[in-house]
Amino acid sequence: MENLMILPAVEPKRFSWLNEYATDAEVITDIPQREKRNNPFIEANTKEVDLSHLTNDCIVPVFSKDNELTISHTAFIETVAEAVSMFYNGESIESPDIRVSHIVKGRIPEAIHKPANQLLESDKTIYYERMMFCIEIPTIYETIDGNKLTLTVGGVRAYNTMNLYSKKTVEKFKVFVGFRNLVCCNLCVSSDGYVGQLEVSNTTDLFRSVLDMLHNYNPARHIHLMQTLGNTTMTEHQFCQILGKMRLYQALPQKIQREIPRLLITDTQINSVAKAYISDPDFGSYGSDIDMWKFYNLLTGANKSSYIDSFLDRSLNATEMALGINSALHGDSRYSWFID
Fold first, then answer.
1. pLDDT tens-digit profile of 262-281?
2. Which of 11, 198, 238, 312 could bridge 173 with an S-S bond, Cβ 3.0-4.6 Å?
3. pTM for the whole structure
4. With the CA atoms of 187, 191, 193 and 197 taken in that order, what torsion angle do they form, in degrees rounded to the nearest 10?
5. What span, in angstroms and rounded, lies between the C-alpha atoms of 307 and 268?
6. Which residues contact 169 (CB under 8 A, 6 or more apart)?
7. What is the C-alpha separation between 212 and 6, in angstroms, rounded?
8. What residues contact residue 123 under an 8 Å CB cut-off, 6+ apart?
9. 250, 203 contact by CB (below 8 A)
10. Is 72 helix (H, G, I), strand (E, B) or coil?
11. Do 93 and 32 meet the contact criterion of CB atoms below 8 Å apart?
12. Among 162-166, 206-210, 324-328, where is mean pLDDT lowest?
């Protein structure tokens, strides 16, 4: 893979983690405010917040049986950011893009017996059950079919996957590294850049686990796999056949589903893919053949309607589906059910 680029500041050298020719980048200490994007990386019922809001305005939940604090959303983000800064030392690293959902409202102990209509603002507490963030590294990028993709690291925290009514135990996180399509802000996640069941007890273990993930991730291979998608096209008839089989998949008995590669996209999202095929200005192809790169982005675009806690699993599944169907169009049998 010859075109993965890092903005140069000094003479080129070879990075072992990239396995391609690259250059150091200028260290930027003052990062300008990110330009506001119209398309967030996830929509659903989320809203954008900043790190100061999570730090100053939100409480940190505890394990109720021993009153031990959980790892806060702020600590999670800052730990991942520290690992990113260490691993990609010398790159331009943007501030985190954070989205939250499922607000939990409460009150301080002193106001426990106050009627709701007498509560002061200082009596109220909030935290968010679910949070997702992305940290963009704009100096590591590639262009596919006119779409600029930048390397992005991030994570998901969902308290609903934990039992906060117990004693303190390991805490669950999801972390990823992949590429973000700047045309639509869709996230491209691969299997070697995703840890979906990360269980740690403290931020030290979290830091090490993120570094391990970054070390194991091969960005050149990921880019190459996405580039190959643009080399295969399918007819409108084949596209409709695949969507129809996706709809059938949801109704299949579990025994039959287990014999077919998994599909996590929902019926509503399949409908969104169909609508985008007709009307999306970047990836729609109504009335003509569609290449697999566009099909992949229709899947990742539909995934934006997922809740935070299921978003990354479906992002990875979109990659699996696009690559699998691409192979099936070339004769591979594993995903042939979707095109037969």
1. 999 999 999 999 999 999 99
2. 198
3. 0.87
4. 100
5. 13
6. 63, 163, 201
7. 22
8. 107, 108, 110, 111, 114
9. no
10. coil
11. no
12. 162-166
Q: Which amino acid is at 38?
A: N
The Cα 168–Cα 314 span in angstroms is 29
* Of the candidates 204, 179, 139, the residue with the CA atom closest to the CA atom of residue 6: 139
Read off the tokens for 180.
């973000």
Distance between CA atoms of residues 94 and 89, nearest Å: 13
Helix (H, G, I), strand (E, B) or coil at 255: helix
Q: CB–CB of 145/230 below 8 Å?
A: yes
Complete DSSP assignment for 267-308: HHHHHHHHHHHHH-TTT--TTS-EEHHHHHHHHHHHGGGS-H
Measure the CA–CA gap between 114 and 58, rounded to whole angstroms. 21
Beta strand 186-188 pairing with 20-22: unpaired
Whole-number Å distance between alpha carbons of 329 and 163: 44
Alpha-carbon distance of 339 to 241, in angstroms, equals 6
The 3 state secondary structure assigned to 214-236 is HHHCCHHHHHHHHHHHCCCEECH
User: Which residue reads 């030290």 in tokens?
Assistant: 204
The amino acid sitting at 276 is A
